[in-house]
């Protein structure tokens, strides 16, 4: 584990700067929804390498789409400062150097034309969040809580209603934001784990709200016309899957910390099966060309 000692916070709600939260200010390396996603969809080895308290950790460098999303997030909800780069694109060396310098200072680099579109993007988003929450709401609240002796957990919640019974998470994308596209994106990205973690955060810190906390995803296009998705609230089946995966990741993470071992993929042989579409494709070709459809050729 890293020898660096970040500021340590106890359980509860905290107003933390991005850098402090993302460095993990818990007494022991804590589990966040993003790390849990890696545990479930890759392995503990990958998760430990991606954890800020790991000596193997390397800061990720994100692309332009991530910068646009971060900029919108910052203007709407608060966060890092934006640095406008006077350039039409990132093709020139000067533009790239300015971009890298901005990132080195902890700022979000944004091209002039992208910055000009922020107001058109943010105004409808701000209204949508106001409508969903029915008034004022908390932004960028960091929750720290525990599960067992070693089970430190943390979550940074985009928006939370004043009553703390509604979480609305803001996401931007270059892709489509119709309801079915967002539904597929949740499954593809494992975002049900995030929803489960955030709901647990609120219920752990406010036990009287158990069973009453709702979670909504709100997507928005990064480019004109900056359309907003319908508010996306998952079914109980989707949430149950998220809770099961979040709890499994927590059990595996706490055990790995206890033993100081973060294994990779299973050593047990895996029997690979042909996907149905591959079987159908071969059967169709075999029928058209009078080829054997199975068995030895």
> What fold name stands as the CATH topology of the domain at 12-60 and 117-259?
Lambda Exonuclease, Chain A
H/E element sequence: EHHHHEHEHHEEEHHEHH
Helix/strand-derived class? alpha/beta
Number of helices: 11
Return Rg in Å: 22 Å
Percent range of helical residues: 40-55%
**Mean pLDDT, nearest integer?**
91
Strand order of the largest sheet: 1-4-5-6-7
CATH class of the domain at 12-60 and 117-259: Alpha Beta
Shape: globular
- First and last CA, distance: 55 Å
Q: Can you tell me the residue ranges where pLDDT is under 50 for at least 5 consecutive residues?
A: none
Q: What percent strand?
A: 15-25%
CATH architecture assignment name of the domain at 12-60 and 117-259: Alpha-Beta Complex
Q: How many individual β-strands?
A: 7
């Amino acid at each position: 584990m890293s020898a660096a000692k970040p500021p340590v916070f106890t359980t509860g709600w905290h107003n933390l700067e991005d850098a402090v939260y993302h460095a993990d200010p818990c007494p022991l390396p804590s589990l966040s929804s993003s790390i849990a996603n890696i545990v479930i969809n890759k392995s503990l080895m990958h998760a430990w390498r991606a954890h800020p308290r790991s000596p193997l950790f390397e800061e990720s460098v994100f692309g332009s789409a991530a910068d646009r999303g971060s900029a919108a997030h910052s203007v709407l909800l608060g966060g890092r400062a934006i640095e406008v780069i006077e350039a039409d694109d990132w093709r020139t060396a000067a533009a790239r150097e300015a971009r890298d310098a901005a990132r080195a200072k902890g700022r979000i680099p944004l091209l002039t034309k992208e910055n000009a579109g922020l107001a058109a993007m943010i105004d409808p988003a701000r209204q949508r969040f106001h409508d969903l929450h029915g008034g004022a709401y908390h932004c960028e609240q960091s929750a720290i809580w525990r599960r067992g002796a070693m089970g430190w957990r943390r979550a940074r919640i985009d928006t939370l209603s004043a009553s703390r019974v509604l979480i609305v998470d803001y996401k931007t994308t270059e892709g489509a934001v119709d309801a079915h596209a967002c539904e597929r994106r949740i499954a593809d990205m494992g975002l049900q784990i995030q929803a489960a973690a955030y709901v647990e955060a609120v219920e752990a810190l406010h036990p009287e709200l158990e069973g009453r906390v709702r979670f909504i995803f709100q997507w928005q296009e990064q480019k004109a016309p900056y359309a907003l998705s319908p508010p996306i609230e998952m079914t109980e089946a989707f949430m149950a899957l998220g809770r099961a995966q979040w709890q499994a990741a927590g059990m595996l993470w706490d055990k790995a910390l206890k033993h100081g071992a973060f294994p990779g993929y299973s050593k047990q042989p895996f029997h690979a099966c042909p996907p149905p579409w591959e079987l159908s494709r071969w059967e169709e070709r075999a029928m058209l060309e009078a080829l054997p459809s199975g068995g030895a050729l």
